[in-house]
Amino acid sequence: MRRIALALAIATLALGTTACPEKGPAQKAGEKIDETVDKLTHPNEGALEKAGRKVDEAVEDAKEAVQGEK
């Protein structure tokens, strides 16, 4: 079950990053805001902890999406 969830999370992240090749100014500004908020809400987090949290969030989002379709 965990492997399926991890594979689903990785697939979701991979598909999300291929949507548009060029980023506009609004998207760049939004990403900077997201990064700033992330740093403020998780100030002492290392790179591996951050990656793990992002995977956990992606898995939770995927679960909610699947459960919402029932």
Which key phrases capture this entry?
70 residues, mainly alpha, 3 helices
What does the secondary structure layout of this molecule look like, with pairings?
Blueprint: H1 2-17, H2 25-41, H3 47-68
Helix pairs in contact: 1-3
Q: Would you give an account of this structure?
A:
With 70 residues, the protein is an all-alpha fold. It has one domain. Helices cover 79% and strands 0% of the residues. The chain contains three helices and no strands. Helix 1 crosses helix 3. The longest helix is centred in the last third of the chain and has 22 residues. It is globular. The mean pLDDT is 82.
Instruction: Give the mean pLDDT.
Output: 82
Question: Fraction of residues in helices?
Answer: over 70%
* Total beta strand runs: 0
In terms of structural class, how would the helical and strand content be classed? mainly alpha
What about the largest sheet?
none
* Count of the domains: 1
- Ranges where pLDDT stays below 50 over 5 or more residues in a row are none
Q: Hey, roughly how much beta strand do the residues contain?
A: under 5%
The span between the termini is: 19 Å
